[in-house]
Amino acid sequence: MKSRSIGVLMVAFALGVGGCTTTNETNPQRSATEELLISGAADRAAAQLDLAIPRGTKVFIDPSKFDVSTIDGKYALGQIEDKLVRSGAKPVGERKDAEMVVQPRVGALSIDDDQFLIGIPKMNLPIPLAGTLSTPEVALYKKRTRSGIAKFAATAYGENENLASASTDPKYGLAHEREWTVLLFFSWKNSDVAPENKESGLTISSPSSPLPLIEPDATKPSVPRGTRAPSGVPTLSSPPTPGG
């Protein structure tokens, strides 16, 4: 009897230990959606920079006017470099090896958050001797728009007198995510940067066209199935054999 009690206690202890298993999850400062909005705006602003640098020119990208201490700044500068490469320039790692110096500038690289609500907003109500009571939001209709905004410009100048200087006007890139809520429970989103629901820049491949129907040639007599065709014309029931 004593051994049975000990067995029951061991099983209960094992179940208790198993029930305490937890999984740790990271909690970054910004959501992936915010990062996609900023990087999406950077993509669109960088794509518009055109310095008309001659193809094959060795360029050094001067990052002194760019904040590369953040992941957003590093990505944006990388996109500007990619644009130069696609235009035919050849970036070099040392200024002394360059024929031209490109100095990009950033005027904006952040997010705006705009909300319109018909209903009762979330509020924090002070309760004497009890602290603060948070009331939930009651949305009869709500529209939230988060926008990633980027503003880039760039100047290029030659390291010798043979290459002319060039500059660009400020170029803007915008990316959006919109979310609607109706009658508290019904909500949906629309984004132009999320991979699964992209408004712009998405290429939809149409299904391949079916083979065209071959219309019968009215100049050739039709041969009924099973009948003998004139010499040189194969019948439908017996296709010609190779070498026959």
Characterize the structure shown.
- The chain contains three helices and nine strands.
- The chain is elongated and about 75 Å long.
- Residues 11-19 and 197-244 have low confidence and may be disordered.
- The protein has a domain at 30-191.
- Helices cover 20% and strands 32% of the residues.
- Strands 1, 2, 3, 6, 7, 8 and 9 form a seven-stranded mixed beta sheet that branches. The chain has a two-stranded antiparallel ribbon with strand order 4-5.
- The termini are far apart.
- The chain has helices at residues 2-19, 32-46, 71-86, and strands spanning 58-61, 90-91, 100-120, 123-127, 131-135, 138-158, 166-167, 171-182, 186-191.
- By secondary structure, the protein is α+β, with helices and mostly antiparallel strands.
N-to-C SSE string, H for helix and E for strand: HHEHEEEEEEEE
Mean pLDDT: 76
Oligomer: single chain
Strand content: 25-35%
User: Helical region count?
Assistant: 3
Measured between the Cα atoms of the first and last residue, the distance is 95 Å
- Count the strands? 9
Broad structural category: alpha+beta
Largest sheet properties: 7 strands, mixed
Primary descriptors:
7-stranded mixed beta sheet; alpha+beta; 3 helices
Describe how the helices and strands are arranged.
Elements: H1 2-19, H2 32-46, E1 58-61, H3 71-86, E2 90-91, E3 100-120, E4 123-127, E5 131-135, E6 138-158, E7 166-167, E8 171-182, E9 186-191
Parallel strand pairs: 1-2, 1-3
Antiparallel strand pairs: 3-6, 4-5, 6-7, 6-8, 8-9
